[in-house]
């Protein structure tokens, strides 16, 4: 368990300030807050060219490919997608020389492709990732790693068997902010962790996955039968194709899309293997558009004590009908402070309990006689010295520089693993330790029961 001493934290804080540089620190005397600017993106210099392909060119696919191509030495060979319009858009973006296909297997057969980015709907993640690794390709697979827990174990087995480079796309674990937050947590910044709470609330149609549907969506421009894979055969439906996140058959709902980000970040920070009990509840409140998943969901996770962290509880919430306008945060609450995470920024707020309990106010002291109050104060002053006075509350805030992109650093880590054999930051086992509990949330919600989870075997018990 980390040494949660305030003294050690203050020593490490001084070292952090020295490493960042005095020019990057701004003392905010009025609010007692010190602001720190973290270092920017990783610098890359390599003569080794890596040729990639994108499989699944929707929102994440285009975003991932564009980000990957910012890394020096990376070149795009081809893309695969089931909608002709996405293939046309890819050529318009990167040139007519681009190889485009509806069949991802054509790309896997090419010898001039070293790595693939898998950004398809969730129910295709395992199949494509496994096929790609068996063909000798490195794989960057979007989160959640799989749609079903059993699929995750197959991906882990394939990675071990093929020795392929495989990284899950929860880019937060490569963020400079999360790396610094991890250091401060492990130095004892907040004392003993006892509770984690996080929320991602939204109040918009796009935020609730009602994505735009092109006017040319039809059975000729979309290979709908391939999209369905092994799910129930339904008549052509562009809504299911473009808004697949809203359906259990193809996506993983709120837990797989959003909770998994929060779980990944937490596990990275505190070196956790996962919870032991999971319970979820929720409702479909606003977006009654044919979806069969809730738009409001709360999940409770009980984490056991381990060598790296104490026992604690985590509550996660998503509300797609938030009339307050939405917002998000993650808070790690300890006995001496709290770490409040944004995305590429966070704050450490310290508020240590003094040894002296105090008296007066909402207290029995006011009910004592005047004589007894004087006696109490005299005894109190003898028992508690000035050294036991409460420490002044302090806040340190940490921000990545303007324009920082953690997804870029995540791709740098991926390509470094390909070039040098360096371990990735989020391999298949890490990916399932994050995705598994998220998928168990769905299990709890739909079966209306508590899920017992084995964090070592990464599976549901019973």
UniProtKB/TrEMBL annotation:
Location of the Gfo/Idh/MocA-like oxidoreductase N-terminal domain: 50-169
Statement: the UniProt record of this protein carries the keyword Signal: yes
Signal sequence bounds: 1-29
Domain of life: Bacteria
GO molecular function: nucleotide binding
Record keywords: Signal
Protein's name according to its UniProt entry: Secreted protein
Species of origin: Chitinophaga skermanii
